[in-house]
Amino acid sequence: MQKIKCYNGRASIVGLTLFAFTILAILGAFNSPTNAADRERSWHIDARSLTIRNMIGSVKVEPASGNEFVVTAVIGGKNSDGHLLEFKLDEGKSTLLNVVYPLDKYRKYKYPEHKGKTSFSGWNFDDDVSVLSKVFRASNKKITVSNNSGEVEVWCDFHIQIPEGKVLKVENGVGKMDAVDAVGDITLDTASGNLSFTNCRGELTADTGSGDVSVKQVGGEILIDTGSGDVEGTDIKGPIDIDTGSGDVFLKEMQCAQILVDTGSGSVQLFNFISDKVDVDTGSGDVTLDGVSAGYINIDTGSGDVEVILDETPRGKLLVDTGSGGIHLELPRDASAELQADTGNGKIHFKLPEAVDVTTSKDELELTLGDGDLDIELDTGSGNIRIFSES
User: Fold this and answer.
1) Which Pfam families does the UniProt record give (predicted)?
2) What CA–CA distance (Å, rounded) separates 99 from 78?
């Protein structure tokens, strides 16, 4: 009997313990700071344009099925209690949605998706001109976002559906942003993060302080600006303007009224394109144009080799100037051009059997091909020049 009583006592203790844990689990489910209801917000916004400002997180832009913007925000991180971040919505024809972070308490944020560490310093957060002024709402102090350390781990990811023909601008501190299948005027602006447009049409702007940019199957006016990062584009229809402080540019399969590329340091490669105007300026880096059909081409590089392979020679101009670097020019067999070449310190080599009116010296060359439709000027301060026609 004593054994039975002891057994029943233990069973009662175990039963009470399990019951207590069950109650706590149920209460925790209702009060847990990380349940989906606390972490997720959504809005249906009827506006002509929408601006979203956020400090940390990823962004996905897709088309909407109706006439309203559909915005879903999901708070992530170990401290995603749903109360740490504040959302402020200013509605109107031009609607503004701000995500406000607790910068009065925390200055160092952990974001595992981020590569390395990014610091915001020198921002005037109370200045309306500042890109992220309404995001931070704090004094002019440094904020750090790191992938492996921080005082707090919290961020906000956005999924945005844009109605066709409307205007969307997303300003982000740290995080990647992607737009897919969208039609409208879309600006993606981040201090640090990769950006991409895929199968989009409209006025498309990608601006990142540090990060790569990818554009594929896009049409409209395209503006790309990156402080440091590579740019890659394929199947582009519409004028494109690229400015990168440091980074390579690779573009192919384009039909553009104009192609403008300016990079402080980085190579530029353009393949298989038709354009009225091509302007490439690089402080330091090689330039390659292959499969070119353009009425006006201007290439200027402070230091770097230049290679140009022309499919045709329409009426227009081809200007190539490099401070230090060689020039290689390949012309079509039926080329029609007036050509002048000059090298300050180097040699000129050419093989153009159809050339007439040839005037040559050690560092200068003049000649005519066909009717002389394309005006070609090649100039290098230091480097060899090679000119050939396709065999």
Assistant:
1) DUF4097
2) 18
Residue 323 and residue 343 in contact, taking contact as beta carbons nearer than 8 Å: no
Contact 244, 282 (CB under 8 A): no
Cβ atoms within 10 Å, residue 28: 11
The answer to whether 238 touches 253, Cβ cutoff 8 Å, is no
Q: Which of 15, 2, 170 is nearest to 178 (CA)?
A: 170
> Residue 27 burial by CB count (10 A; 0-12/13-18/19+): exposed, middle or buried?
exposed
Cα–Cα distance measured from residue 69 to residue 185, given in angstroms and rounded to the nearest whole number: 13
| Residues ≥6 apart with Cβ < 8 Å to 280 | 259, 261, 262, 268, 270, 287, 289, 298, 299, 300, 301
Q: What is the token pair recorded at 390?
A: 């396709």
Rounded alpha-carbon distances, angstroms, from residue 303 to 68, 269, 325, 327, 384: 50, 15, 6, 11, 13
Q: Residue 215 and residue 241: Cα distance in Å, rounded?
A: 12
CB 121 within 8 A of CB 155: no
Tens of pLDDT along the chain (391 residues)? 333 333 344 444 444 444 444 444 444 444 444 456 678 999 999 999 999 999 999 999 999 999 999 999 999 999 987 689 999 999 988 999 999 999 888 999 999 998 878 887 533 333 343 444 444 444 457 889 998 888 899 999 999 999 999 999 999 999 999 999 999 999 999 999 999 999 999 999 999 999 999 999 999 999 999 999 999 999 999 999 999 999 999 999 999 999 999 999 999 999 999 999 999 999 999 999 999 889 999 999 999 999 999 999 989 999 999 999 999 999 999 999 999 999 999 999 999 999 999 999 888 999 999 999 999 999 999 999 999 997 6
Residues sharing a CB contact under 8 Å with residue 4, sequence separation 6 or more, in sequence order: none
